[in-house]
Amino acid sequence: MSSHTAQTELKLIGKLILEGDINCQTGLHIGAGKGSLEIGGADNPVVKDAFGLPYTPGSSLRGKLRSLLEQSSGMAVPNELVYLSKRKGQEVRIHQSDRPDDEICLLFGRHPGRLERVSGEALESSTATPARLTLYDAPLIAESITPQMRENMDDELTEVKSENAIDRITSQANPRTLERVPAGARFHFRVVLDVLCPEDRELLPRLVEGLRLLEDDSLGGGGSRGSGRVNLSGLKLTWRSRGFYASGATEQELIGGSDLAGLQSLVTGEDFAAKLSD
């Protein structure tokens, strides 16, 4: 937990901007929803922008990082989870608390009101916490899809993976297809962490922890069946103090061209907080 308290005052000190590439080690499937089904197309198409290019939604990155950090913090247990939806078959449970030092709620924000816990008494909270973390949609780096890759794909930018579900009694196959962005594709991501008080400097190591967990987990659908393995590279961390916005002060590049190990070594160093002055 962090050193935030109920008396912590919020005033912008600056913003940390993390950019880099998401590299697909295996095919990536982030679904577009049933409304995008086309005649003759895959059963499960990937999400695409207005130009027909696949991208990685910021909401997908945000949700995955939150889930991983909840698990690693021991918050994915019934008495720490609340219902966002109780619709049968579509239940949504996430972590939320009213503790001022709860790093998950500090990073991702929280809303006041009454929320039913999965186990125990309902959460009655009057505290609203602004989200420190913003994750933008990550566009495809078009040149990462090489001509050689295009020759072996089902579409210009994507592949179709065929799968079968086998009935254990009759051995009858139930085929399905999954559209994926191929291994080797890259997306450019951008994350902004608002530092609204000195205590917020402690939150960046937690974000990096989540990114490291992501590399040994999966992004998008079909992760347990081989899809969605990614890693991050070319990481650049920039500090923009309040003076950058108020008077045009120079931004400070804290690290460039790094991997996650190098970034983690930087942000967990004893002198890192001193670099984030206003």
Numbering strands along the chain, what is their spatial order in the largest sheet? 7-11-1-12-13
Put simply, the count of helices is 6
> C-alpha Rg, in Å?
21 Å
End-to-end gap: 24 Å
- Multimeric organization: single chain
Question: Which structural class do the helices and strands define?
Answer: alpha+beta
Number of separate structural domains: 1
What attributes does this structure have?
278 residues; 5-stranded antiparallel β-sheet; alpha+beta; two-stranded antiparallel ribbon
SSE blueprint:
Elements: E1 14-24, E2 55-56, H1 58-72, E3 81-85, E4 92-95, H2 103-108, E5 113-115, E6 123-125, E7 133-135, E8 138-139, H3 147-151, E9 159-166, E10 173-180, E11 186-195, H4 204-215, E12 230-241, H5 242-247, E13 252-258, H6 260-267
Antiparallel strand pairs: 1-11, 1-12, 2-8, 3-4, 5-6, 7-11, 9-10, 12-13
How would you describe this structure to a colleague?
The mean pLDDT is 92. Strands 7-11-1-12-13 form a five-stranded antiparallel sheet. The protein has helices spanning 58-72, 103-108, 147-151, 204-215, 242-247, 260-267, and strands at 14-24, 55-56, 81-85, 92-95, 113-115, 123-125, 133-135, 138-139, 159-166, 173-180, 186-195, 230-241, 252-258. The protein is built from six helices and 13 strands. The protein is an alpha+beta fold. The chain has one domain.
